[in-house]
Please model this.
Amino acid sequence: MEPPSLPPPDDIARAAELIAQAEALVIGAGAGMGIDSGLPDFRGPGGFWRAYPALGQRGLDFYEVASPHTFDTDPALAWGFYGHRLALYRTTRPHAGFGILRRLSERLRHGAVVYTSNVDGHFQRAGFAADSVTECHGSIHHLQCTLPCSDDLWPADGFVPEVDAATCTLLNAPPACPRCGALARPAILMFGDGSWVDRRTRLQEARLQRWLATATRVVVIEIGAGTAIPSVRDFSHELLIGHGARLIRINPAEPAVPTRLDVALARPAATALLALAAALDDDG
Ligand SMILES: [Zn+2]
Model:
């Protein structure tokens, strides 16, 4: 005989109740979602330099390197950084929480959409349909011209970066714009970025708004989205106000929620989602 299972903790039980009553799910994801897949955490003092010691030795911080300006001044360094990330995101397997969310979305009448500030493409990799994902900061798997000479985007698939990790520099030829031959860059929003081609993101956002117009009983599960770069949090709050949605916020560091009807889960992403799955009888 199996021992009786323990009831879920109170916060998990309340979150499971919100999901059980939902007809549509919006998954909002920030950097904290990727940490449990083993992706580096750039946040906090030293986080970025722990991930990229070569940049620490040169005293270069995240905001300086992740900038379109660096593609002009030091393209080998800029592509050393983004090439390393591109290769890392291609080879990293999304953690179990992604599968839990995908199965959850299949149970709901209106299904689910994803709104993510992560550029890693991991929701698609975990089996989410491409047309259900909005990447508000773009995707590293797409390239654009650095000028840019047009608003063309193209897949990064053909580019295989060779990066010297000790110096964070690209060893092979960087990708070039097929239209004008200028240096190409990832089509993602960088710091101080006036040249990001956001056409793909704008189309995704328009599609998301059409879905929201028909969705009823919306619950937002927001995961690992901090206040430092608040795009995802701002979107969650818009849904609470504009669509009467309820919010489940998974965030170990900044879990506070706007109202008492919302639920704060002060836990890491994968831990919280596994506990939710257990409470919802999802055995994977
Ligand atoms: Zn060009």
Notes: Residues 169 and 205 are 34 Å apart (CA to CA). Residues 145, 147-149, 177, 179-180, 182 surround zinc ion (CB under 6 Å). The first strand starts at residue 24 and ends at 29. The radius of gyration is 20 Å.
